[in-house]
Design brief:
Helix content of chain B: 25-40%
Oligomer: heterodimer
Shape of chain B: globular
Distance between the termini of chain A: 34 Å
Distance between the termini of chain B: 47 Å
CATH architecture of the largest domain in chain B: 3-Layer(aba) Sandwich
Mean pLDDT of chain B: 86
Number of domains of chain B: 3
Radius of gyration of chain A: 22 Å
Largest interface: A-B, 35 and 46 residues
Structural class of chain A: mainly alpha
Chain lengths: 350, 514
């Protein structure tokens, strides 16, 4: 019965190359932004100076770490506005644990190895718990993630202030010599091992792992399927509820890790009013990197480039001596232009 | 043609006996019987709202039947959900394709049943299984790694069928599979259905198009008002009997055309050209006239209406309304000038699906629905009520969301909007696409009534412009028909000058007269 003559014409498929073009476009944008500031702010105290490069690496580590989690959430068709507050809460938790004990005999002095580990574990647990709450509410209450995470954003911020008693937490000075506080310390020179701050290696490792996870595991492909068409995923037996909860937990976990880095970034202080509005940088990094807020689309590599662009913009603006408002205007414009270009390309493809 | 099922044979592949299903007070299925043998294509026909969708959902396990029995290969069949049904070999292909556009064809085919090594995807196996399934559905040239979003609709549909083939489906239910396919792709789909049939797969083919049923199916089952009202062998029963069964009465005259006379000119296009299409559209429309526009899909008919209505830019040409030249303007202005457009795409453009019937119906003219320009919902509902009653639109009331209605009733809401607005010129783009015969008949009757006018109530005759790809419909309801070919609108000739053959010739550009 077979009638090969009546087969459907197959559309030609130039996808691979178009993905490469997209990546090259982002890299070119990154290079352009970098070159812009490098040329306009020269000198030993300028944008390209070692001190400033180290500063940027520290900022990049925080944004990029949180953006890995955010990318997964966005690919699954969600959004996590609580990321900034989760970062703050994780930072406060880290500081709180390191500050445990009476004034004269802080626990951390007696247990310089165990307590930092405990602090990190506690911070990550707390932020993952927030992720679980996000995921559970989104899944079981069927309320859109924007609203749920808007709520948990406020709550996490409140809890951070509650734990810190509305003050900064200053763990003992000795903490500054422990590894938790030194995650972002620059390596001696750029050419001696480990070349980059430990935290940057952590981010690179996490990014690689996550990218492979998304591409090569069943769970990773299910995350794309849910973001692309949740009903279909359900129809095909994908455990949608469980996967979505897991996705928000992963998002929370990465916010927690970013919070630990932020603790080191602030010089081993817990500051409950820091990282306000950070979720917007993190979301912007993912979106500039090509993630679609409608779900189903996004890459870790793109997000990393997005995080670099965002950080360079913020830092470069400061180095240029731009007032806050100019920085904000430029940042907003860059986000819109980046997404507009992406949209145009998408439309051309179809 | 009997109400009883066909003679019992030893254990049919799928048997449905006396299945009933209610949602609250409404009884969607009042008793459905059907049997299906291996290697058989069964046409399931009936108007929208006859219960076909509900039956599909019961078969797929999305809904549980209230009573009745189903058996698959002689054993009781009680699917707990779509996934379970799929596992048992009963697969559905819905009109709205269930694919994840951002994933590759192979991932879609094996979604939920991915071969793995522990947590890792086994890509080699995934590709191999998908390759075999794609070969089987007639896509041997398609790379399984192609993203679904990059495929044509026809290819996407085949990928979805490949998903059913990959799990070794025994019963395949196709819901109006040809509604968005080109003629060539329809032939490919038919060839595929015949191949599957030869392999012993049983197919339930849901369609409005009786020509397709005649070409493809072995038997038919007609549903009306939640019941199966007839079975038979295709070819043994004349088509008009089947239609009569579907509608529940004889369709004496599906296309009413009262004697009417053309009045004053109300809309004139002169060499209207848009950015790509139309290239040149000229037309004179008078009160009391129904003018049809035929042509191939993609010939620029919809674009002509859109340019006229201000949805697309006008590059050159002239639009005269009531004899006065008007500059290109937006849809708001056109509504104000007494024009109204029904979009060909009621799902995404024509109607706000999650708003109520009343809100959709009054959207273009909200004035007079409350003091100081405010809109009172109660007045909105009151304004919609007469149209709901007189059309009639089958619904629970004006507050009901449009998305809950059948396609035919949705289309009636879209047309009733123009009636509420009291438009003088009705631009109808594919007004009966994908809707049931009963709703079609009602819409044709309204078109006739509007073009006739009603001197008793002082209603002046309206002018109606109908774009349609269904030639019998154009020949049935229009006074004059013009054919669009590659962006150029030909002369509108009296309907007596045309038949289906000459319309097709003109549409494909082979008509010497045009």
């Amino acid at each position: 019965m077979s009638q090969p003559s009546a087969s459907v014409s197959v559309s030609s498929a130039p996808k691979k190359s178009s993905r490469v073009v997209a990546l090259l476009g982002r890299l070119a944008a990154l290079a352009a932004v970098y070159a812009f500031f490098a040329i306009l702010t020269p000198g030993s105290k300028g944008f390209m100076s070692d001190a400033n490069t180290q500063l940027m690496l520290q900022d990049i580590a925080v944004v990029a770490m949180a953006a890995i989690g955010m990318t997964i959430v966005i690919i699954a068709g969600g959004i996590d506005l609580s990321a900034g507050s989760s970062i703050a809460l994780a930072m406060i938790t880290t500081a709180y644990v390191l500050n445990l004990g009476p004034e004269e005999s802080k626990l951390v002095l007696a247990h310089p190895v165990a307590l930092p580990l405990l602090a990190v574990a506690a911070a990550v647990c707390v932020s993952t718990l927030i992720g679980f709450i996000n995921g559970a509410l989104v899944t079981w209450m069927r309320i859109v993630p924007f609203i749920i995470t808007l709520g948990t954003m406020q709550m996490a911020r409140g809890f951070a202030k509650l734990v810190a008693n509305e003050q900064n937490i200053y763990p003992p000075a000795a903490v500054q010599d422990l590894w938790v506080a030194r995650l972002l310390d620059p390596s001696k020179t750029v050419f001696t091992w480990p070349f980059l701050p430990l935290a940057v290696w952590l981010v690179i490792g996490a990014a690689l792992f996550t990218a492979l996870f998304l591409r090569y595991t069943r769970l990773g492909r299910h995350i794309f399927a849910i973001g692309s068409n949740e009903k279909t995923a359900l129809l095909c037996g994908v455990p949608v509820a469980r996967t979505k909860i897991l996705v928000y937990m992963i998002g929370g976990l990465f916010s927690g890790l970013a919070g630990v880095l932020f603790f080191a970034r602030l010089g081993s202080i817990g500051q409950p009013t820091e990282a306000i509005g950070y979720e917007l940088f993190v979301i912007a990094a993912a979106v500039i990197g090509g993630a679609s807020l409608l779900g189903g689309r996004g890459t870790i590599l793109g997000t990393m480039i997005g995080a670099l662009i965002i950080t360079i913009l913020r830092n470069g603006g400061v180095k240029m001596g731009w007032p806050q408002y100019t920085q904000e205007i430029v940042m907003g414009a860059v986000i819109i232009v980046a997404v507009a270009i992406d949209n145009l390309r998408q439309r051309q493809r179809t | 043609m009997s109400r009883a099922a066909d003679a019992p044979s030893p254990a049919p592949l799928l048997a449905v006996r006396g299945v009933k299903k209610s949602f609250g007070a409404t009884q969607a299925l009042k008793g459905v019987d059907l049997t299906l043998e291996r290697g058989q294509v069964l046409a399931l026909i009936g108007e929208n709202g006859a219960g076909k969708s509900t039956l599909m959902k019961v078969l797929s396990g999305a809904h549980a039947a209230d009573s009745g029995e189903m058996s698959l290969e002689g054993t009781p069949y009680r699917p707990a959900g779509p996934l379970h049904a799929r596992g048992l070999g009963v697969c559905m292909i819905y009109q709205e394709l269930a694919l994840a556009p951002h994933l590759s064809a192979m991932e879609n085919i094996l979604l939920g049943i991915e071969p793995t090594f522990g947590p890792l995807m086994n890509w080699r196996e995934t590709r191999a299984i998908a390759r075999r399934a794609l070969d089987e559905v007639g896509l041997p040239g398609l790379d399984p790694a192609t993203l679904v979003a990059d495929l044509s609709i026809a290819e996407q549909q085949l990928v979805e069928i490949a998903r059913a083939v990959a799990v070794g489906c025994k019963v395949l239910v196709l819901d109006e599979p040809t509604s968005s396919l080109t003629q060539k792709d329809v032939q490919a789909l038919f060839a595929l259905v015949r191949r599957l049939k030869a392999k012993g797969v049983a197919i339930v083919y849901i369609s409005h198009a009786l020509e397709e049923v005649e070409a493809l199916c072995d038997r038919f089952t007609v549903m009306r008002d939640g019941e199966t009202v007839g079975h038979g062998r295709v070819g043994e029963v004349p088509v008009d009997r089947i239609i009569a069964l579907m509608v529940g009465r004889d369709v004496e005259d599906l296309y009413p055309r009262s004697p009417r006379s053309a009045g004053e000119p109300i809309l004139e296009l002169r060499a209207l050209a848009g950015q790509k299409f139309p290239r040149s559209a000229g037309l004179l429309l008078r009160r009391g006239e129904v003018v049809g526009v035929a042509g191939l899909i993609g010939s620029g008919r919809t674009e002509t209406l859109r340019a006229l209505f201000g949805l697309d830019p006008v590059v050159s040409g002239e639009i005269r309304i009531r004899g006065i030249v008007t500059s290109p303007a937006g849809p708001g202005t056109r509504w104000g000038q007494g024009l109204g457009l029904v979009s060909e795409d009621r799902k995404t453009e024509g109607l706000a699906q999650n708003l109520s019937i009343a809100e959709n119906l009054t959207l273009s003219r909200l004035d007079g629905l409350g003091p100081w320009g405010l809109v009172r919902p109660s007045r909105q509902n009151a304004a919609a009520a007469p149209w709901i009653k007189s059309f009639p639109i089958k619904c629970q009331g004006g507050e009901q969301a449009v998305e809950a209605l059948s396609g035919g009733n949705q289309q009636k809401v879209a047309i009733a909007r123009l009636l509420h607005h009291d438009c003088d010129v009705l631009l109808l783009d594919e007004p009966t696409r994908g809707i049931d015969v009963g709703s079609k008949a009602q819409i044709y009757a309204w078109i006739d009534r509007l073009a006739l006018g009603d001197p008793a109530t002082g209603k002046a005759p309206k002018a109606v412009l109908v774009v349609s790809s269904y030639l019998p419909e154009l020949l049935g309801i229009c006074d004059r028909i013009a054919v669009m070919t590659r962006g150029v609108l030909g002369e509108a000739r009296p309907v007596a000058d045309w038949n289906e053959h000459s319309l097709m010739l003109a549409a494909t550009g082979q008509d010497q007269r045009a």
